[in-house]
Amino acid sequence: MNAITLSNVDISYGDTKVVLGVNLEIAEGESFALVGESGSGKSTILRAIAGLAPDWTGEISVLGQPRSHGVDRQVSRQCQMVFQDPYGSLHPRKTIDATLSEPLTIHGIGNRGERVEAMLQAVGLDRRFRFRFPHQLSGGQRQRVAIARALMLEPKVLLLDEPTSALDVSVQAEILNLLKRLRREQGLTYLLVTHNLPVVSFLCDRLAVMRHGQIVEVADVDQLKQGRLSQAYSQELLAATEGRAGAEA
User: Fold this and answer.
1) Angle between helices 169-186 and 139-151 (to 10 degrees)
2) What SS3 state is found at 154?
3) CATH number, position 84
4) I want to staple 33 with a disulfide (CB 3.0 to 4.6 A). Which of 148, 185, 186, 207 is the partner?
5) Domain for residue 101, yes or no?
6) Which of the two residues, 74 and 179, has the higher pLDDT score?
7) What is the strand order of the sheet 157-161 is part of?
């Protein structure tokens, strides 16, 4: 069974159609990336799957369950999202305990204290962080809390919207290693949105290249590592990434 299936999906914001006829199948346990320049529709696809972009047509299913438009409690138990900005995604006036307990309260799940402490430990934060506020945490620690919040309902699918791009380079590696470990330990499926091809090489099995709301190529990560992407636009993205890496070196 596929973890995520999109069939002939169009997504619009008002009168503007931003995703056009996307078909995608992501297997259970796979880590899959959507890459492309800003405005190509990558994050919009994540938002539609998560129920945050309700104006879409076609078919979207998660673990064989067709999702409705808008918030779907049944799908949310199986599929959660980690947002790009660790500074904006956590409520500034709620403790970490309140933030992590909220999904459990909404879904009527007990043993909240034990579950919160266990999840903090899973993401590399000890119990001292439980009653702190977001402003008392670093960016990397906040993103660990955001990942913990996404995992509180024990979903099998995580949607990752540029989860390291707002972090310092040294912290990015820590979060990527955490995501890799959690996927292995919990049997997770990832759908990652990023413009960073080295991140794709490290974390993913396959990728789809998007341009102007359409998928122009699907490739294995080995093709990416070997520079064997077939489409001219994909090669342009690869060359641009290598150029930036050379300039930074």
Assistant:
1) 20
2) coil
3) 3.40.50.300
4) 207
5) no
6) 179
7) 79-82, 157-161, 189-193, 31-35, 206-211, 214-220
pLDDT at residue number 74: 83
To the question of pTM greater than 0.85 for the whole model, the response is yes
pLDDT digits (tens, 9 = 90+) for 136-185: 999 999 999 999 999 999 999 999 999 988 788 889 999 999 999 999 99
User: Can you spell out the DSSP letters for 164-182?
Assistant: TTTS-HHHHHHHHHHHHHH
**Domain ranges, residue 166:** 2-90+156-234
- Alpha carbon of residue 39 to chain centroid: 17
Element (H or E) spanning 202, and its range? helix 197-203
Residues in the chain, total:
249
Instruction: Please give the Cα distance from 240 to 3 (Å, whole number).
Output: 31
> In sequence order, what are the residues at sequence separation of 6 or more whose Cβ sits closer than 8 angstroms to the Cβ of residue 246?
none
Rounded to an integer, what distance in angstroms lies between the CA atom of residue 12 and that of residue 10?
A: 7
Residue type, 180: K
Counting beta carbons within 10 angstroms of the beta carbon of residue 122, is it exposed (0 to 12), middle (13 to 18) or buried (19 or more)?
A: middle
Structure tokens that stand for 245 in this block: 């890496």
